[in-house]
Design a protein that fits this description.
Layout: E1 4-14, H1 17-28, E2 32-33, E3 36-42, E4 50-59, E5 69-75, H2 78-87, E6 97-99, E7 102-108, E8 114-120
């Protein structure tokens, strides 16, 4: 069974997410949107299936994650993976939430860092 299939996103805290987004747009050329920037790529060199990695600045006092950064990992079959992780003693922080762009859940790694798992809906 596949587990992590790629990096789904990089999220970080900052004092002014809007200004930070504009800075990255102006100085590094990110093609920004209301959520930050989305990097599209192909799942393999001979694939026609697109995938994406999200880049998002958050308010520095955000409670969405505790540390300064949080990694989002792309996964396949989130429900099955969560059941396996439970059997392995991994802490599941919340329930799976579903949106039009995918399913999400948070877990804690071995050092207590909050990690987000994302099964994309293509």
């Amino acid at each position: 069974m596949k587990r992590v299939t790629g990096i789904g996103g990089v999220f970080f805290k900052c004092k002014d997410p809007k200004a930070t987004t504009e800075w990255y747009k102006k100085h590094l050329g990110l093609d920004t949107n209301p959520y930050g920037a989305t990097f599209e790529w192909f799942e393999s060199p001979d694939s026609t299936k697109k995938a994406q990695t999200q880049w998002t600045p958050f308010e520095e006092n955000s409670n969405y994650f505790d540390k300064d950064f949080m990694i989002n990992y792309r996964v396949e079959n989130l429900e099955v993976l969560i059941e396996e992780l439970k059997k392995e003693g991994v802490t599941i922080v919340d329930k799976i939430e579903t949106y039009d762009y995918g399913k999400f859940v948070h877990i804690l790694d071995g050092e207590g860092n909050k990690v987000q798992l994302w099964e994309a809906i293509d």
